Amino acid sequence: VPVPPGFTITTEVCTMYNEQGQEKTFELIKPEVEAAVKMVEKLTGTKFGDKDNPCLLSVRSGARASMPGMMDTVLNLGMNDVAVDALTKKSGNPRFAWDSYRRFVQMYGDVVMEMKPASKEEHDPFEEIIDQLKEEKGIELDTDFTTEDLQELVRRFKAAVKKVTGKDFPTDPWEQLWGSVAAVFGSWNNQRAIVYRRLEQIPDEWGTAVNVQAMVFGNMGNSSATGVAFTRDAGTGEDIFNGEYLINAQGEDVVAGIRTPQSITLEGSQRWAVLQGISEEERASKYPSLEEAMPELYRQLDETQQKLEDHYKDMQDLEFTIQEGKLWLLQTRNGKRTGAAMVNIAIDMLEDGKIDEKTALSRIDPNKLDELLHPVFVPQALKEAKEVAKGLPASPGAATGQVVFFSDEANKYDTSILVRVETSPEDLEGMNIAKGILTARGGMTSHAAVVARGMGKCCVSGAGAVKINYKTRIMTIDGVQFREGDWISLNGSTGKVYEGKITTQNPSLSGNFGKIMDLSDKYTRMSVRTNADTPNDAKVARDFGAKGIGLCRTEHMFFEGSRIKAMREMILSKTETERRKALEKLLPFQRDDFKGILEAMADYGVTIRLLDPPLHEFVPHEPENQKEMADEMGITVDEVKSLVDDLHEFNPMLGHRGCRLGNTYPEITEMQARAIIEAAVELKQNGIDARPEIMVPLIGTVKEFKLQADIINETAKKVFKEKGTEVDYLVGTMIEVPRATLVADKVAEIADFFSFGTNDLTQMTFGYSRDDAGKFLPVYLDKGILKNDPFQILDQEGVGQLVKMGTEKGRSVKPDLKIGICGEHGGEPSSVMFCDSVGMDYVSCSPYRVPIARVAAALANIKK
After folding, report:
1. FRET pair for 207, CA 20 to 30 Å: which of 147, 152, 695, 792?
2. Of 55, 374, 447, 552, which residue is the catalytic one?
3. Which pTM was predicted?
């Protein structure tokens, strides 16, 4: 593979740079860098900083994980007034020499000297100078600039740098090189790279490397070109070579999306022309593919991409340059891809015998499966929608939302579509919040396209009919104006843009998705259950492969219609007799609910949690609702108010709830136990295998649990006697109070199972209220006080140690004690892997996260 000579300054140097500062670090590596530059000079027959035969370099970042566009690149380094003359003589092409110089000043000015737009409404200062000169000269394209125009641009660029920074543009090549290395190391900690790392869970301490390479030029005329290619389709995973190139350009032009490039393959080019409504005749003459324009170079590129994919055994994302008819490969990395492409590529490579089953599974990022479960447009609604523009299908999916023009305003509406001329890495946070992304410029390999595919966001790029005015916040498409807040819809699979809202529906999953799920089950040790409160949730989760219910919350059932009235009667009751009377009304409702859920999850365990929230949640707090309750109950509004006041607690999360309610009002536990056991008995009599597991919440002492377990067991005996039928059932507890983990061995003596409620365990271990933590958690994450939000990703150092201890203590008494987790963490991949490492039997999560947890459970087992 032809690669320009170069060298790498490693990630360890970046870590040192961040810890010990620039001066000390550069002093240490200076001799090695100078020796490496000499090696490049020798291999290229040029000399760095020479006035007759200068060696020009490119400086790029190289992180351990692919971070497209997140860090900075400088090309044509070593250019100055002397080098530009030498390059002119050497190439006999003054326009090329000055174009390279102008690009260097622009990139170095932006990356190293921080010439950025003054405000978000303004464009890049260099691009503004370019647009101004185009207007003066009456030209449209960068390629129309004459040598004199390019000389004028260099002059204006340098003047702008001096005006804004107060410094002269550096002419010494060594000063340029060290400035660029510092900028690349510094860019590891720029805002966009930090945000990207947080989204992709890339550790801060990894750092970036700096790749210094001899320049090859794609801007030396019409026999030169530059491009980006993928060995497979990054949107679908289809095994077709694809990509884009620009004749007489440099690499950054393609990625930055400044000029819309042409397709590499004939097939891709023809597909593009159909999308754009361009005739075959016009396409072939004006926008030929690389396959047609440079057939021999296309053949070499095609051979090379196959060689690279076979070597790395994964889809590759390549950057290449053609310099005067010679092909050079600049970089290759594993390509970013959508969730659908990830699944299809893994299965295709497995079936082609390129990788084995475990490798195929390890190629699946569990979080990305989420994308496959996302909505698509309802076909009928799509037929009736009004199409207003067409761009390139940059990242598949369906999105409907309100127009916003600035990334930092993406959260202005519940669902927004970010509309930009082109996106830059600074737009990352907004792209993450928005439902979809629409850009006026840029191809299938532009920043917007690559990042959107990585995030699984719907994106339409290069919609040329879209004109945007940031100052007035108006987008115009063929004379029709769309203002901020107007609704539009995007189809990222076809590149079409529609006016207004379009209804969406859940997708149907492909055969390869099923194959990944089957593979996961083959290699997993833990089972995956779901958290479900309704038969419908249970059915959805079962279709996704859940094997049981890990948490069914009974309180959600009390809020419907006439049930809430019976519940409030129970709360109003002054005596046990009155309470029992109200609970008798609730019994048939609860029994029917449990029958529905146990039947939907027949043959699997169903963990039903007894009443958990404090009673104040069941009474109205607004005056109009209090009057309604008073009328319904036949009491005065004052009586309702006094009841609400009586139930008020200063800290309800730590108050009268969970088993504390069951122990003060044992008749509540009795009614719920009866409803569960009667439901299971009725189902058994109808030939259905129901397996209830009754869970006592919030215990902190053994006695708390024992009193509740005794009531449940007594009630079950009574029901069996009355009905003449017995069923198997378990009685266990939710471990969510830190004290329970400390006495877990004593609890295990009488419990059939443990289920860790990590939501409350996290609240009580940290002393954070989940409802109030939003006020300080973002600051804690920014300042690095916490690495992750502990309510989303299990805190393994603290909360995890309590989970581990509780598990070990429980099993020391009862080696076959069934143990699971039912907090939100049960569907988060790194938390699932932790649960596997401590030996849990199952994890439980919301229905739509079941496929994610199944893959994570398999990966945990494979990695061991």
Report:
1. 792
2. 447
3. 0.84
